[in-house]
Amino acid sequence: MTIKFVLLLMIFVNILGKSVTNRIYPGNNACTNFINYFDANIDKNCFYNPDMFLESPDLIEKYVGKYESHKVTTADGYILTMFRIPRENPKGVILLQHPVTVDSRIFVSRGNSSLGFLLWRAGYDVWLSNQRGTLFSEDHTNSSISYLDYWDFGFHEIGVFDIASQIELIKNKTNNSKIIFIGHSMGSNSGLIYAALKNRDAEASVKIFILMALPCYFEHNSNALVQFGRFILFLPFVQNLLRNIKLGSALPILPFLVPFSRILLRIFPFLLIFINYMFSFTCGWTPKELDPTLLNFDSAIYVKNYSWKIFVHYLQLVQAKTRYQMFDYGKRKNLKIYHSEVPPLYPIENVTVPVYLVSSANDSIISLKDADLLFSRLPNSTKVYGKLYVTGLNHVDYHMGKHAYTILYEKLLHFIDNLPH
After folding, report:
1. Which residues are CB-contacts of 298 (< 8 A; sequence separation ≥ 6)?
2. d(CA 126, CA 338)
3. Given this model, what pLDDT does residue 312 score?
4. pTM value?
5. For residue 70, which of 150, 128, 149, 11 has the smallest C-alpha distance?
């Protein structure tokens, strides 16, 4: 709390003490210390990072030199784009599934330190998912579909339709029937749903599900309950409001918001710290892991569109605590869809493919006790590789933490390399 207060105080004093004309931000977009952003254009500890606003294809082309772009259409009509970092005679094929509010860029945004590039350099054929609704997967086969109808999906549909279609595409293109699946947060949610509801397909297609920071149960996480508890009371109101105003996505003004926000960030560098402070309130503040040079990156990467249904479903899971249940539409609609007033539980007892759960003791969203609860409810046959505990990473530090390689990636690479062929 002291660090947060000092940062906010510095921002306030800085705003009062200097004029806007001295805040023009012509070049430098990264600094080695937070306070250096106040004079980024002249501070010797600041520099220009050319990767800052590059998208996945540009980053892959820069650091690898080649990539493939593939289109796949889901069973319910969403047209997805996948990026492949190809490898001749690979050790294996890996599918990376990103969390909510981001896209495939999260796995390549740290240059050579990115998980996607580390896996490729280790000898793997790497495929990057872009889930429905994200920048490269915005199309639908039905051109007349309404804006509201388009966004009527959650991580359930991503698991049942997106992942199923992506895996079939990968198998067809690589002639490899056993894919290594790696997901983080919502990407892990969708992977587990696919493994449970399409267990036969998963058994025929996936070698292992590596699920990092999976937000499934919320019985023992007081932080998550504190953060989201205030919204749970208003959940019925929020759902009705969203339906009445026909708002399906979280950022309907995104085409205008992103360019405008980038202009603001260039003119007012102190906004970077404020944005990251607000973001840290939701996903945890880890002073030792928050890299000051990534402030601009955080703002660029995490300003992505997503469905409100995803957010509402997570609120429902927080309320349900130890019930990993499907979306709750209300008693009347539940009866029509599920033939029950209460949403059914996801049948994780049906999972047959090995699952490797990765959890951090410092994750403010997923507690170790809740991760253990999930592990205990998985079939014994899926737990042959055990689980991995790490210390020092918060929820977003899996990607943006300064020590993500030594804390997690190094262990993950060793584990994957030693999987039986």
Report:
1. 275, 276, 279, 396, 400
2. 37
3. 87
4. 0.86
5. 128
